[in-house]
Amino acid sequence: MVWGSVSGQRGRIAALAMAVGAAATVLVASASPADAARRKRASGGYNPPYAAMVVDVKTGRTLHAVNEDALRHPASVTKVMTLYLLFEQLERGRYQLDTPLAVSARAAGMAPSKLGLRAGSTIDVEDAILALVTKSANDAAATIAENVAGSETAFADLMTRRARQLGMSRTVFRNASGLPNPQQVTTARDLTILARAIQDRFPKYYKYFQTRQFEFAGRVHGNHNRLLGRVEGVDGIKTGFVRASGFNLMTNAKTDDRHIVAVVLGGRSGAHRDGIVTNLVETLLPRAYAGARQTAPILVAGDQTPVPARPAVVAEAPKETPKEAPRARADVNVETTATTTPVPQARPKAPLDLNAMRPAVASAAGGSTTTPGSGPALRWNQGPAGTPASASAFASADSAALPLPAAHAARAEAPRPATVVAKAEPKAETKPEPARAAASAWVIQLGAVDDEGKAKEMLEAAKSRSGRTLAKASPFTEKVTRDGSTLFRARFSGFSEADDAQDACRTLKRNGFNCFATRS
């Protein structure tokens, strides 16, 4: 009797469940399209525009690319450029890691994510760095911008200028945090350049991107990058999200002498994005080149941006002794024959017209990069090909001045680093070699390195990957001395028109090389 009772009860429950299921089916079938759309959104229908790119750091070769040149919103990946500019100030000695940064009411009022900084308070430079790396704090980002440049708008203009100088040709910044702004755009390709540049320029400070957690004002903030410590080789660098962008991640991975950077933009969720990046790293890192690096570092040549004086109330205080002394400025000499001729300082050009840079976000996919076949064998020429008078739009010859804080204190010119890459230098007083100048109105430069053999290897690699683009171009090296240091420019001559030289540079950039075109 007991068993029969239980069995009958189970039968009634099963029948009831079937009835409820049938009723639910009827309700779903009769729901309006609007209800269906709401359910789709609730169940994960969010599908932002996607883009991705993976680059082998040692060769510059593209390992993976999807929509890599399509415009996207960077979101908080923006903060990598914010930190790039702050690291410049640290290197020059303008700031120390314990220098207090004043928090304005505007910065304190930034939308989350934020530390909760109070207007009128201060935050040390190192804490601000860690706040951006881990918490992705927008109030800290705005504080950095206002202290460095006087206003966030002025700082964003400087970010865009620096992006151009690094070769990020399609990126425009409007703020230091990545908070929503329809005009703040970038591409996956541009962000792979930034990921490499910040490591090349600031290996000492790059370590901050490996920080797992950060304690501030009694609270512990974890890093938003969930791949740290979970995916072999991953050591940074930055996540980002706004509704218009989707879930973004700039990643660096190194292991077994291999090194890649990966950028994924437009993940549907953090987990979706992380899964894509994990798969890319685990698949492509073992395929990366394991030999010596073949590409030159991505640097802003000359680093000539004048550093604005600190606001007057701060500047009157005794000058602190920098932890790292700024490098002394040096005159550049170009070796022509047996003598050297000093090169005069170039006059700065007019600032970039940033109002003209207002691209609309494109949804069209950019084509993936392929590697053409090898070109003809190289013949080497060493000697001057005409010192450039100015750089092309691909690598602006000037570093426009940092906007001044409200105090409008006098600017002081920053020292130049010893190594220059893909950047025009001031024109020498001596005339270019007549025969070469007549044969080649324009030349392109890939970079300048401290060994002639490396310069030749760079030219060989460029020619082999450029197919017919450089078939008629003549590779040559040019020896340059700077304060006792010797550099070798890697250049191609043989371009009669500016468009030809610039087209060649575009091809080289698509294949991972730095490049600028200039008159011979």
TrEMBL record:
Residues 362-377 have a biased composition (Low complexity). The keyword Transmembrane helix does not apply. This is D-alanyl-D-alanine carboxypeptidase. It comes from the Bacteria. Residues 1-36 form the signal peptide. Residues 317-332 have a biased composition (Basic and acidic residues). Residues 436-520 form the SPOR domain. Pfam families: Peptidase_S11 (PF00768), SPOR (PF05036). Substrate binds at residue 238. PROSITE patterns: SPOR (PS51724). The active site is at 76 (acyl-ester intermediate), 79 (proton acceptor), 136. Keywords: Carboxypeptidase, Cell shape, Cell wall biogenesis/degradation, Hydrolase, Peptidoglycan synthesis, Protease, Signal. One of its GO terms (molecular function) is peptidoglycan binding. Residues 315-350, 362-392 are annotated as: Disordered. Residues 334-343 have a biased composition (Polar residues). It comes from Salinarimonas soli. Belongs to the peptidase S11 family. One of its GO terms (biological process) is cell wall organization.
